[in-house]
Design a protein that fits this description.
By secondary structure, the protein is α/β, with parallel strands linked by helices. The protein contains 10 helices and 10 strands. Bound molecules: NADPH dihydro-nicotinamide-adenine-dinucleotide phosphate. The site of NADPH dihydro-nicotinamide-adenine-dinucleotide phosphate (NDP) has 28 residues, from helix 9.
């Protein structure tokens, strides 16, 4: 399965579907799952320092490379700094620690995980230095609201390539998306399936039935048709496969509208304005 890519604002290409690994323990099961995902065609993998599983993600990646399934250059690896008010030097050290755990010599994308309360500017300066030194291919943010982005852009030299936010049919984040679009910041959806909660939704099930597809495939297709990068997580091989098998059908504009209409502004994770460390 060939996943298509989107060109980011620094001209780097990022696969539009990736493999997420939140709430998965470090260990051989994850190492195998990462190899399986790569074998099945995933080229983008999303982890974070706080997930505590960078070692297994790295092992899975390196084994897939050693087995000749893929080259490092073909992969797009993302991790995130747990920005609990880190200084410039601490952020650089966090990046180096992530690389060491993963056994990699660069990351494709490094994100500030949460804005916290105005704590992100020093970290951003560190990310800018890493990028300028060529130690990282792209830098971005996660869970940034419009006011965080406005503040960042006032002081930043480099515009983030990506804002990774909670995004699914119950939370379509119009304001953040409009701002990102205006500033050429790519939106990436976390918990695209609302951690499986949306899979029993009757509207989504109905649309899925009409295409002979699963509810998960319908939601992920809805992401792609509106230019949102998506990173579903699964530890089940058949679902890992299912989640990238989304290139052989198309939602109608009416179905896209039906899915948009499910929006309730409902979060499954923390509100970035409330969440401090
Ligand atoms: P998802 O919305 O991806 O849902 C994952 C759940 O859905 C799992 O229980 C999985 O089960 C199940 N599932 C996956 N595919 C299918 C399918 N085809 N059919 C039925 N069930 C399915 O949740 P996540 O919260 O994991 O979000 C995805 C990724 O986003 C994370 O892994 C992480 O990389 C990122 N993220 C980032 C955050 C941030 O703050 N930046 C916060 C949260 C997530 P099973 O594994 O048993 O197959």
């Amino acid at each position: 399965m060939n996943v298509k890519s989107i060109t980011l604002n620094n001209h780097i290409k990022m696969p539009e579907v990736g493999y997420g690994v939140f709430r998965v323990e470090d260990g051989p099961e994850l190492e195998r799952a990462v190899q399986t995902a790569i074998k099945l065609g995933y080229r983008s993998i999303d982890t974070a320092a706080i997930y505590g599983n960078e070692e297994s993600v790295g092992k899975g990646i390196n084994k897939a490379i050693e087995a000749g399934i893929v080259s490092r250059e073909e992969l797009f690896v993302t991790s995130k700094v747990w920005n609990n008010g880190l200084s410039y030097d601490e952020t650089i050290a966090a990046y180096e620690e992530s690389l060491e755990k993963m056994g990699l010599d660069y990351l494709d994308l490094y994100l500030i995980h949460w804005p916290g309360k105005e704590k992100y500017m020093e970290s951003w300066k560190a990310l800018e230095s890493l990028y300028k030194e060529g130690r990282i291919k792209a830098i971005g943010v996660s869970n940034f609201q419009v006011h965080h982005l406005e503040h960042l852009l006032e002081e930043a030299e480099i515009t983030p390539v990506v804002n990774q936010i909670e995004f699914h049919p119950k939370l379509i984040q119009t304001e953040v998306r409009d701002f990102c679009q205006k500033h050429n910041i790519q939106v990436e959806a976390w918990s695209p399936l609302m951690n499986a909660e949306l899979l029993s939704n009757e509207t989504i099930k109905g649309i899925a039935q009409s295409h002979g597809k699963s509810p998960a495939q319908v939601i992920l297709r809805w992401d792609l048709q509106q230019g949102v990068i998506t990173i579903p997580k699964s530890m089940t091989e058949s679902r890992i496969q299912e989640n990238i098998s989304i290139y052989d059908f198309e939602l109608t504009s009416e179905q896209m509208d039906q899915l948009d209409a499910l929006n309730e502004g409902l979060r499954s994770g923390p509100d970035p304005d409330e969440f401090d460390f």
